[in-house]
Amino acid sequence: MPSPRLKSLIDSEISKLKTEILKSEGVLNLVSSNESHLLNLALTEELDDLNRVAAMVSRLGKKCSEPALQGFKHVYGDVVSGVIDVKELGFLVRKMERFVNATANLYGEMEVLNELEQAIKKFQHN
Predict the structure, then answer these.
(1) Is 24 left (phi over 0), alpha (psi -120 to 50) or beta?
(2) 53: which residues sit within 8 A by CB, 6+ positions away?
(3) Which is more confident, 15 or 43?
(4) Average pLDDT of 25-36?
(5) Which residues contact 11 (CB under 8 A, 6 or more apart)?
(6) Virtual CA dihedral for 37, 41, 43, 48, nearest 10 degrees?
(7) What does the alpha-carbon distance between residue 96 and residue 21 come to, in Å, rounded to a whole number?
(8) Is the Cβ–Cβ distance between 38 and 45 less than 8 Å?
(9) What is the DSSP letter of 81?
């Protein structure tokens, strides 16, 4: 059950964010009416999510036999700090997207497995 937040923000989602969410009465009254500030908040939230996923991929990568995956944390750090230009790594970005999606799927399946194990324990206890 991958998080919908893991997919890229496409034009239609950005449009919906600007026209519906940022203009909603609750956001305007409780958060801010400054669109630039609100977009910065949304960007910060997306980047936080990306960093959490990258940390998860990094932990899993350390357990892999592929050296490139074992050093994911360092490569990701270089991308974030601007040492590596992402535009030059299109092939690697696509590969990373597959790993991120696989990790998200794995995480979701682990949650399902945990729920099933809890249900079995509860069933056996009764």
Answers:
(1) beta
(2) 6, 100, 103, 104
(3) 43
(4) 75
(5) none
(6) 160
(7) 30
(8) no
(9) H
Query: Backbone phi, then psi, for 84, in 5-degree steps?
Result: -110, 130
d(CA 73, CA 45): 20
Residues 6+ apart with CB under 8 A from 109: 1
Residue 3 contacts residue 104 (beta carbons within 8 Å): yes
Distance of CA 23 to the CA centre of its chain: 25
Task: Report the share of the chain in percent with pLDDT over 90.
Answer: 11
List pLDDT tens digits, range 70-124. 888 888 888 888 887 777 777 777 787 888 888 888 988 999 999 999 999 988 9
Burial class (CB in 10 A: 0-12, 13-18, 19+), 118: exposed
In this structure, what token pair is assigned to residue 80? 């974030």
Query: Is residue 100 a contact partner of residue 6, using CB atoms and an 8 Å limit?
Result: yes
CB-facing half-sphere around the CA of 124: CA atoms within 13 A: 6
pTM, two decimal places: 0.49
